[in-house]
Amino acid sequence: MSDEKHDDVLLKVDHLSMYFGHGTFVKKAVNDVSFEVRKGEVFGLVGESGCGKTTTGRTIIKLYDATSGSVYFDGKRIVAGTGAYKDEIKHLRKRKRELAKSSDANAAKELEECARRIGELQNEIRKAKYDHKHCDDEFRKEEKARINEEYDALIAEAKPEDVSRLQREKRRKLRIASRTKLVTQIQMIYQDPVASLDPRMTVREIISEGLIVQGVRDKKYITDQVYEMLDTVGLVHEHADRYPHEFSGGQRQRIGIARSVVMKPKLIIADEPISALDVSIRAQVINLLNELRETMGMTILFIAHDLSVVKYFSNRIGVMYFGNLVELADSDELFRHPLHPYTRSLLSAIPLPDPDTEKNRVRIRYNPLLDHERTDEEPLFREVCPGHSVRCTMKEFEAYKKQVEEE
To answer: Which residues fall within 8 angstroms of residue 240, CB to CB, at 6 or more apart?
Structure first.
C-alpha cells in the first residue's frame, strides 16, 4: 500500500455511540468511538465478531439512529445523536434539585451555572436534530445552485444549436438533484452476497435500482451504466438478465460491488466483503476493490476480522473491542509496535505460512481483568506517539510512552 498522506478528511466519526435496549437492559454496541477517514485512503476497522464493527458502519450510513455523537461527511454533519446531551441535562436537573434544598452560600451561583449549561445543551439538541433531519435538504439546495450556475454560464456562451441540448441536460440534472441524498455518496457492500441481493430481481434491475430511485429516466443511459459496471467488476453483458441464484458466491459479491459503485460514491463501506467467500475468490475481490480505489479515487472503510487481509489492504487500522475503539495507528506501525494487550492478542492469532515458525508461535490470550489494573479511572483514547493512539488509563499511558521510547 502507498504511504501517501491525505490531509483532507472525508469522514469524521466524533464520539459515536449506538446503544440497543432501554432502562437497565442496554447493550452498548458502539461506545464513544472517534476516528477520521482521509480522502483516498483505506481505513481498516478490525475486531472479533460482536465487537461493534458492523454496527459502526450501519450507523454511519444512517441505517441506525445514533444514540449520541456525530458523523461528519465531506464537512457536513449527517448523523447526530442526542443521548449524551439528554443524560447531562438529567444530571444537571438532579443537581439543581439538590442545590435548591442547600443552604450553601455558593448554591445560587452554581444554580445559575446549571441553568446556563442546560440552555446550551438544549440548543445543541435542537442543532443535532436539525442537522440529522435536514442535511439532505441543505445538500439538495447546494447541488441545485451549483447546477444552475454551471449551466447558465454554459448556455450563455453556447451556440444556438447547442442551447436546447444544454437545457435538457440542465433539467435532467436538476431533477436528479431534487431526489438525491447526501448519504447516497456513501455506499455499503454487505457481508452476505446471498442475503443482500433480491432473488426476484435481475442483475440489471439490481444494479440500476439506485439510478432509478434517484430519478434517472433515460433507458439507454441506464443500460450503458449497467454494462459499464459489469465490465468494471469482471462480469459480461449477458449476465445482466440473469438472477442472483444463477451465480457463484464470488460473482454475487461482484454484483453487490457493481450496485454500490454505479452510484459513483465518494466513500464505500465494505462490511466484511470476503468473509463469506472461498479462499480462492477472496484475493480476486480484494484486488477488484483496490483497482476501483485507484481508478475511481474512492475512499474505503474496510470492516473485517482477518488482520492479515487488513494489513495488505489498509493504510490505517482501528482495533475495536466490546464496542470501544482500543487502538488506532498506521498499518505498518500497528503491526510493528502493537501496544494494547487486545491488539497483541489479535496479532498473535495470525497463522504463519512457515511450518517451523508456526510450531513455535506463542498465542497471547487477552483477559481484561488480568491485563489491566483495577482502578476507578475511566480509560480515555490518548495519543502515545504521532498517529498512534490507545485507549488507556494515565498510568498505562505513561507505560506505553516509555515502551515506545525504548523501542
So the answer is: 202, 203, 204, 207, 226, 227, 230
Residue 219 CB contacts under 8 Å (≥ 6 apart), including other chains: none
289, 257 Cβ separation under 8 angstroms: yes
- Answer for the pair 373, 381: CB distance below 8 angstroms, yes or no: no
Dihedral angle over CA of 340, 341, 347, 348, nearest 10? 160
pLDDT in tens, 229-273: 999 998 999 999 999 999 988 899 999 999 999 999 999 999 988
* Angle at the Cα of 77 from the Cα atoms of 76 and 83, rounded to 5 degrees: 170
Establish how many alpha carbons lie within 13 A of residue 97's alpha carbon, considering only the half-sphere containing its beta carbon: 5
Count of other CB atoms within 10 angstroms of residue 338: 21
Confidence bin at 7 (pLDDT 50/70/90): low
pTM of the entire predicted model = 0.90
User: From CA 223, how far away is CA 73, in angstroms rounded?
Assistant: 30
- Interacting residues of 303 by C-beta distance below 8 A, sequence separation 6+: 44, 45, 46, 53, 54, 56, 57, 269, 270, 271, 272
